[in-house]
């Protein structure tokens, strides 16, 4: 995939209250969320957000409750209007769209998968999956096959005539994903899409999404409060706190180099061996090397290598990508990577300046 920017958010602010423009000046003078509420009775939703979202990739926006993640995603299709800033989609300023253009954006370019499924209870599974085509006037004879195709792809073959109340939560969310895919939109917005599901079903849904993405290469913006989910799904991870971006980048780099104490605390309890990949710890090297214990793919997790090595820190492995050598992984360095690092001094200084 190319590094084409599909969505660009620039200097986005959102302030809730009767006089947001006036409150904006205080925020730009560095007043924080608590001060703004206490002194001026306004709520800071987003502060100076800038993110580039690449075409065909999954951007995960994560943070705790109240961090601004759901507020942010609703700016992309203008369900919420910003106080200031830009939202550029395919090179066009969405904030300049009139009602007709905005309706077209929501129907044709962006689909949305909700936390609580948002299925129509009186309609069948097939009819729910076909909603994007039905609302624009496509006749049933034309949308039936398309909707049925996507239901089959998400594992709901034969469920066409069921109603939502007859399905489990996981199956209902599969209908929601099929509905989003039936719209044939380039962009999928997923707001806490798996948060209401039981852990095992949630894992199945994550695997389904990754399998579909491997083939379809949608631009997906996924909102979650769950770090394990974020690390599993994200090509680009954005961590919010109090309406601000604390750190963003490739998830493995954030794990290895947190730039803020908040991030360090956030990642302190994860199983690093399970989520860190060989590529994040290896030394780049492709020349001949003797005395290696074997080969390992650069995308394997460190837990796999620990099992291979039997815990012997004297071993090293050739790292390969599609069968070609790209580096060397020493088990000794792997073990050091399992110890959480403090937020980098450089990152903290950058925050303070």
Question: Could you please describe the fold and organization of this structure?
Answer:
The chain is α/β, with parallel strands linked by helices and 353 residues long. It has helices spanning 20-28, 33-40, 69-76, 99-109, 125-129, 131-134, 140-153, 169-182, 199-216, 227-233, 251-256, 261-266, 272-275, 302-309, 331-337, 345-352, and strands at 5-16, 43-54, 58-62, 84-89, 92-93, 110-113, 187-191, 219-224, 236-241, 244-249, 283-284, 295-297, 316-321, 324-330. Strands 6-7-8-3-9-10 form a six-stranded mixed beta sheet, with helices on both faces. Strands 2-1-4-5 form a four-stranded antiparallel beta sheet, sandwiched between helices. Helix 7 crosses helix 8 (169-182).
Describe the secondary-structure layout:
Blueprint: E1 5-16, H1 20-28, H2 33-40, E2 43-54, E3 58-62, H3 69-76, E4 84-89, E5 92-93, H4 99-109, E6 110-113, H5 125-129, H6 131-134, H7 140-153, H8 169-182, E7 187-191, H9 199-216, E8 219-224, H10 227-233, E9 236-241, E10 244-249, H11 251-256, H12 261-266, H13 272-275, E11 283-284, E12 295-297, H14 302-309, E13 316-321, E14 324-330, H15 331-337, H16 345-352
Parallel strand pairs: 3-8, 3-9, 6-7, 7-8, 12-13
Antiparallel strand pairs: 1-2, 1-4, 4-5, 9-10, 11-14, 13-14
Helix pairs in contact: 7-8
């Amino acid at each position: 995939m190319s590094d084409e920017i599909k969505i660009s958010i620039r200097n986005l602010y959102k302030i809730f209250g009767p006089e947001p423009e006036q409150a904006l000046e205080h925020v730009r003078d560095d007043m924080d969320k608590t001060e703004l509420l206490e002194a001026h009775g306004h709520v800071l939703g987003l502060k100076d957000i800038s993110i580039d979202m690449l075409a065909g990739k999954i951007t995960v926006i994560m943070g705790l409750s109240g961090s601004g993640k759901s507020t942010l995603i609703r700016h992309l299709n203008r369900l919420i209007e910003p106080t200031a800033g830009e939202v550029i989609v395919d090179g066009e300023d969405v904030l300049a769209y009139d009602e007709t253009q905005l309706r077209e954006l929501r129907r044709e370019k962006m689909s949305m998968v909700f936390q609580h499924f948002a299925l129509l209870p009186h309609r069948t599974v097939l009819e729910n999956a076909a909603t994007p085509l039905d609302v624009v006037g496509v006749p049933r004879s034309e949308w039936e096959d398309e909707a049925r195709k996507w239901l089959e792809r998400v594992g709901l073959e034969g469920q066409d005539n069921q109603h939502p109340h007859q399905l489990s939560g996981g199956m209902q969310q599969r209908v929601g994903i099929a509905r989003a895919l039936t719209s044939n939109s380039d962009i999928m917005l997923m707001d806490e899409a798996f948060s209401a599901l039981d852990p095992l079903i949630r894992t199945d849904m994550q695997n389904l999404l990754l399998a579909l993405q491997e083939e379809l290469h949608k631009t997906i913006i996924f909102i979650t409060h769950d770090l394990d989910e974020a690390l599993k799904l994200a090509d680009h991870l954005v961590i919010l706190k109090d309406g601000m971006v604390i750190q963003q980048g490739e998830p493995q780099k954030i794990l290895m180099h947190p730039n803020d104490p908040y991030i360090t605390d956030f990642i302190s309890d994860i199983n690093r061996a399970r989520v860190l990949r060989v590529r994040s710890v290896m030394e780049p090297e492709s020349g001949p090397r003797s005395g290696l214990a074997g080969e390992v793919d650069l995308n394997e997790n460190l837990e796999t290598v620990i099992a291979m090595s039997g815990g012997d820190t004297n071993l090293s492995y050739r790292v390969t990508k599609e069968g070609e050598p790209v580096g060397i992984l020493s088990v000794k360095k792997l073990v050091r990577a399992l110890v959480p690092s403090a937020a980098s001094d450089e990152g903290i200084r950058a925050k303070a300046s």
